[in-house]
Amino acid sequence: MNSFTLALSTLVGTIVGAGIFGIPFAMLKSGIVPGLFYLFLLGGIICLLHLFFGEICLRTSGKHRLVGYAEIYLGKQGKVFATLTLLFVLVGTLLAYLILVGEFSEIVFGSFLPFSSTVFTILFAICALFLVLSGRQLITRIEFFTNILFVGAIATLIVLAMPHVKSFEAPLFDFSNLSNLFLPFGVLLFAFAGFEAIPEVMSFLRDRNARTKLNDIIIASSVIVGLFFLLFSLIVIGVSGSATSPDAFSGLIPFLGQNIIAFGALIGILIIADSFLVIGNYLKNSLRHDFRFPTIPAALFAIGIPLLLFLLGFREFIGVIGIVGGVIGALEGILIILIFQKAKTRGDRIPEYSISLPVVVLFFIALMLATGALAELLF
After folding, report:
1. 139 confidence band (pLDDT: 50, 70, 90)
2. Helices (H), 241-378
3. What 3-state class would DSSP assign to 350?
């Protein structure tokens, strides 16, 4: 199996996660035109941030993660800020996935396995722990095959849904509640971001001495994910119209029947499993390389802390992704821009690619992220 396919599968599998389920609802509430504007704008911005992070990785010798790069280029204060941001982003994302995976598993398997969603979540976390301990190579191969299953499931859903697509009932603009104009920002930022997979993909390509360039993987994944989000959202809105639900699938029940619940839940499990494994492995490796944790304690921390928060009662999915995507995700993007500027002049190796943009463009991107985060808090 060639390196390009495996690396692309890893990055796409990391990006396409639980956030996808909130996109149709957010686009409906803001209006189709603002929703499409956010989708293309944030898709482009996140692609650039992924390229920035990739160049940071390639300009720096050794194996590091975001915290390590922040310490190298921004000093101790940068490391503290990056540590707090990383922990909130990764732990919050893993917590969001644990919330959904238990609910989805109960829908799919509950008829013949009499477990509660909490039990399913715990079982999933235990399985994930063993896979994260196994390392990146095994996870990469698992992701390739689960992504094939996922694409097949989505294709089936599209075939089932297409005959039910009607004239759009969704407004082009919705001025009845201006705060809804900011709704897609946090959801789409959460959905598009896949920073955690960039160092993993780079290490994978280096380990295999692949000729494939990291920037080609990043650009290809951005195009695939953007088109997928667009197609998925338009089909869901086209079928369920004003009845589009926050989880995307329950609003389709009147049109596609009760079986769509189990089918949609199965898709959700595939998406979540892909992203959860890569992000969990990233957090484990960050603890190993940047904080000198032994492998087993690092894996236990990466999987155990989100599970502990879940067991303590943090189970509000929308609240979790709103904060992680809209606020913490924006701070992570700004941090990457700051590191990127320093790495341009202080990196200790020649990168395989280099992105050249005027400083004013970097400032404008950071300003948009900061403004969006503030709007997320206010509205």
Report:
1. low
2. 253-256, 259-291, 295-311, 317-323, 329-346, 359-378
3. coil
